Amino acid sequence: MHGNTGVRAKMTFGEFKEMTMVSMDEICRDIFRENRHSIKIKKEETVVRNLVNIFNATLKLSNEKGFRTMTLRDLCAETGLSMGALYSYISSKDELLDIIQSQGRRITEKVLMERINSAEGPRERLSMAVHTHLYLSEVMQKWFFFSYMETKNLDRRVHGSAKEAELFTEKIFVDILIQGKEGGLFRQGDPVLTASMIKAMLQDWYLKRWKYKKRNISVEEYATNVVDMIESYILAE
After folding, report:
1. Which CATH superfamily is domain 13-234 in?
2. DSSP labels, 7-54
3. pLDDT tens, 47-59?
4. Which has the closest alpha carbon to 169: 148, 187, 142, 154?
5. Is residue 208 within 8 Å of residue 151, measured between CB atoms?
6. Which long-range contacts (C-beta less than 8 Å, at least 24 apart) are formed by 20-25?
7. What mean pLDDT comes out for the span 68-87?
8. Is-contact 235 187, C-beta < 8 A?
């Protein structure tokens, strides 16, 4: 029998969306409030509307041709903004990339920690971490895909920050696995290697979304199967 000290934390995708306000509008509102000094337009609603337009266009064009190939003129054509208007919000492609990457990391870390801290016990926290990461990547699939694919285009400073974000997520799982080992709930294994493998399963959802969509697999089904697979490996006998 598995040594379980509580019922595994469960959360539906619908419940997640009700509890976690993550939308492009909210993301762009945060970007405006954090970058008031550099954005030349001061009317918040105008800025939010145009930033949503800019970021959606960037994600679309990057998916079609790659961020490196995309030009600011391409972005103007896609958004309908003039070059002058575009420069009111961003000074360069590098700045645009930096904002998209850093904002995505900030939201991921914030939402993950909020939801994980609401669960008690390592088994519950592990399940919550898996569900939260997958649900968040479903809501922000284009953002997650872009961040993963375009990391190679970052300069050395920002590339290092992207790597730190990757390790931050892994460390969340490492800490939970260590806690479970120390409490006798999880078997004695390598928590760092196990966390790395968990991360790979989470990434597969948003990197190969087409595959699961074709098979009619929902994010809830995928999350449940990932948790079941992890538990079959780590739960102590």
Report:
1. Tetracycline Repressor, domain 2 (1.10.357.10)
2. PPP---HHHHHHH----HHHHHHHHHHH-TTT-S---HHHHHHHHHHH
3. 999 999 999 999 9
4. 148
5. no
6. 20/111, 20/114, 20/115, 20/135, 20/136, 20/139, 22/107, 22/111, 22/136, 22/139, 22/140, 24/52, 24/55, 24/56, 25/52
7. 93
8. yes
Query: Backbone phi, then psi, for 96, in 5-degree steps?
Result: -60, -45
| Amino acid of residue 221 | E
For residue 25 the two structure tokens come to 């509008």
Convert the pLDDT of each residue in 107-132 to its tens digit. Answer: 888 899 999 999 989 999 999 999 99
Closest alpha carbon to 59 in 184, 139, 150, 179: 150
pLDDT the model gives residue 161: 59
pLDDT tens for each residue of 221-237 = 999 999 999 999 999 87
